[in-house]
Amino acid sequence: MAELGVEARRREILTAALALADERGLDALSMRAVAARVGVTPMALYPYVGNKDALLDGLVDLLLAELLPAAVTPGAWDVRLRAIAHAGRALAHRHPAAYPLLLSRPAITPDAVRLVDALYGALLDAGVPPAQVPRLERLVSTYVLGYAVGEITGRFAPADPRRHARAEAAGDSAPSHRELSGVLAQPPDWDAEFTAGLDDLLQVILNHAAPSRPAHAP
């Protein structure tokens, strides 16, 4: 590695680890593999990123840092919330292997605080009572993270004719599937669905907000 300051070298290592996860998946991420990518011995990593757990926490930091530009989007409260939400989903598609770490590891770094603070600020600007702000922030974050993880892990699969055929064959044992047969046979539009879900969430926020704080059309 080139001669760098401690923080710059740490970022260099984490960037290499994220690139490795993007290319080969999170299971391939080991201290030895990251060291080989950077061009040092595994022991040389420890002063900068600690052990494997600390390395994974560092990846969470790096992912959150990519969202900070969206957190300073100018405009009305709903414009800012939409920007953060869409940036969060886009982040999942850029880094599908590492993104689930955001659901499984704590994020209490300065970047994480700044990101959550931006969400708090948008909710406060919407007129949400302070006592409800943390709960609604969790609601928005859970929607964005959960939806994005559903996409990148394949849980939200395209319309599968085999599933439709099985539902048809089930007959009376799957009456709701039969009623929705025409809808379920259509390929989903994930972009439109994500935006519609976000619209619903903004309406929930408005239900708690001062009546003088309307949302703007996307």
TrEMBL record:
What domain of life does the UniProt record list for this protein's source?
Bacteria
Task: Indicate the segments forming the HTH tetR-type domain, all copies.
Answer: 7-67
Which one Pfam family would you cite for this protein? TetR_C_33
The ranges the UniProt entry gives for DNA binding are 30-49
Does the UniProt entry include the keyword DNA-binding?
A: yes
Bias type Basic and acidic residues, positions: 160-180
PANTHER family (alphabetical):
HTH-TYPE TRANSCRIPTIONAL REGULATOR RUTR, TRANSCRIPTIONAL REGULATORY PROTEIN
The name this protein carries in UniProt is: TetR/AcrR family transcriptional regulator
Question: What species is given as this protein's source?
Answer: Catellatospora aurea
Q: What is the lineage of its organism?
A: Bacteria, Bacillati, Actinomycetota, Actinomycetes, Micromonosporales
